[in-house]
Design goal:
The chain has 305 residues and is α/β, with parallel strands linked by helices. Helices cover 36% and strands 19% of the residues. It has a single domain, classed as Rossmann fold. The strands form three sheets. The protein has an eight-stranded mixed beta sheet with strand order 1-2-4-3-5-6-9-10, with helices on both faces. Strand 7 and strand 8 form a beta hairpin. The protein starts with a helix and ends with a helix. Pfam families: Peptidase_S9.
Length: 305
């Protein structure tokens, strides 16, 4: 079951697991760099340029997704469709090796550090450091949150005034509990959330016991996080893309988010629901991810004064 749940990350770019693994050993895969945090911990990260390196006006930041796979497996092709001159920064979570597939266990150290508070602290520190070492500061500072990563990206976007844009893939305004309950109601998942929660509650801080691929501690940390308040605090442009047939996060979650922005009289959110597409924005062999990043590029270019 753990393998099935972790496979979703590798499906994000629309290729096969074998292709993903081969890519990590190929010449196109980005080389690993190491970022050292103030608390003496570290993470591997990757950086590369899209467009003209001499005219970079955008910094775009990614952070780790569910589990412990390395972003190396899907970069740089993941941002195909991006047309602005940009420097891309991709930060793995702590204790995620350069070529980790995430399929063979993540280790105790990883699980102890794998919590929302640590994600936000690490992502924020990394972003501040990279902006500080870039002169002059580019016009656009963009955070990209994919699935679980949307929680962190949205939180950090609200705490750093340098951030100018937020881009979200495969997420919305529901809590994890609400998303899973909705998927259950639609017959898209087979497990019962509330009965599972009763098991988790018996030992909520355990990293040894797991439920559907993740430790009890992870579930107890993320199950009831409400992302909506963090979204509504933002006045920067937000682009949200989700597949109409997403079976990991219901499309209802993104539509709920859009409705709450309208109720609040806010017009800074753009929602794109891709027809017949799944969690990776793929539909019948067609990837809408390129379309998503192309639209993000248009939004960034429209900010030029």
């Amino acid at each position: 079951m753990r393998v099935l749940l972790l496979l979703f990350f590798f499906l994000l770019s629309g290729c096969t697991l074998i292709q993903r693994s081969v890519h990590m050993y190929g010449s196109e895969a980005p080389s690993p760099l190491s970022f050292h945090y103030k608390d003496c911990g570290s993470s591997i990260y990757y950086t590369f340029t899209v467009g003209d390196a001499s005219k970079v006006d955008t910094l775009l930041f990614f952070y780790g997704a569910t589990g412990c796979p390395s972003w190396k497996a899907v970069m740089p092709s993941y941002v195909g469709g991006l047309t602005v001159n940009a420097r891309i920064f991709v930060l793995n979570k702590r204790f995620v090796p350069d070529r980790s597939t995430g399929l063979f266990g993540c280790g105790q150290e990883f699980h102890l550090a794998n919590n929302p508070e640590q994600w936000s602290a690490d992502y924020s520190e990394f972003i501040v450091a990279q902006i500080g070492s870039t002169a002059p500061t580019p016009r656009n500072i963009v955070l990209v949150g994919v699935s679980e990563g949307a929680l962190t990206a949205t939180k950090v976007a609200g705490s750093n005034p340098a951030v100018t844009h937020l881009a979200i893939i495969g997420s919305g305004g529901y809590s994890m509990r609400k998303s899973l309950s909705t998927l259950r109601e639609k017959g898209l998942i087979w497990f019962d959330v509330e009965s599972g929660w009763k098991k988790i509650a018996t030992d909520s801080r355990s990293i040894e016991k797991s439920w559907y691929g993740n430790p009890y501690r992870w579930w107890s940390d993320v199950m009831d996080i409400e992302p909506l308040p963090d979204f509504l605090k933002l006045y920067i442009p937000i682009l949200v893309g989700i597949g109409e047939q997403d079976e990991s996060v219901p499309v209802d979650s993104a539509r709920f988010l859009e409705s709450k922005f309208k109720e609040a009289g806010k017009n800074n959110l753009t929602l794109r629901v891709y027809p017949a597409a799944d969690h990776r924005l793929n539909a019948a062999g067609t990837s809408y991810r390129g379309e998503f990043f192309a639209e993000l590029s248009d939004i960034l270019l429209s900010s030029v004064k």
